[in-house]
Amino acid sequence: MIPRVQSKTGKNGRCFSACLASVLELPEAAVPTFMQTAESDFIRAVDRFLLPWGVTYRKTQDTLAKPIGWSTIEGTSPRGGLHACVAFNGSLYWDPHPNDGTGHGLVRPMYYGLLLPGPLAPPWVRRLLIKQPCATAADAVVPPFKPGERIKLANGRWTTVTKVLPAENLFKEREWHVSTATGEVVIVKERD
User: What is the model's pLDDT at position 65?
Assistant: First the structure.
């Protein structure tokens, strides 16, 4: 989880988008604004966005058992409108609202937004959704390079990175699956 601040506040704000971006460790701008979606299509739109991760979104009352791992917790904000925050093991962990003096958190939590990995979810996504919070931002897992960057492979060839995903054993050895411009996928071990 990398805390993201919502870029837009108010009735059509991006609190929910910032929550998903935080949990999935994406830039906030990479997540669509779902609040402009009709209520009946909201869950379908969120599920369409989450499909590449093999994850589905489901609402559950906050009076039921607390979820395990990362979720959203949604309800009434100190400003009076609906608001979404990030929860870990059922407790509010991060409020994406900017620190503008209008209050943080929820005055009345109503439900959790569960992020449920399905059978096609890669193992690294499953771990991401239950990973313990980092003690500091420096502890967050950050890829050692970005798409577009040129890297030198073990065989001495240079290639351009197109995509970086954590390998299945990321939390043991910090290895990365790197898709290159030539279409190959290589495993790169991060050096400390």
Answer: 74
Q: Which of 16, 186, 1 is nearest to 93 (CA)?
A: 1
Q: Phi-psi region for residue 134, left (φ > 0), alpha (ψ -120 to 50) or beta?
A: beta
Residues 41, 82 within the same domain: yes
Tell me whether residue 42 is in a domain.
yes
Number of neighbouring beta carbons within 10 Å of residue 186: 16
pLDDT at 87: 92
Q: Check: CB of residue 162 under 8 Å from CB of residue 150.
A: no
pLDDT, residue 187, reads: 59
Query: Same domain, yes or no, for 71 and 91?
Result: yes
- Count of Cβ atoms closer than 10 Å to residue 156 Cβ: 6
What pLDDT was estimated at residue 68? 85
Separation CA 177–CA 188 (nearest Å): 7
Do 131 and 151 belong together in one domain? no
pLDDT cut 70: percent of the chain above it: 70
Cα(53)–Cα(122) distance, integer angstroms = 7
Rounded Cα–Cα distance for residues 145 and 20 (Å): 23
Q: Does 104 share its domain with 184? A: no
Name residue, tokens 């499953």: 126
This model's pTM is above 0.70: no
For residue 124, which of 192, 187, 60 has the smallest C-alpha distance? Answer: 187
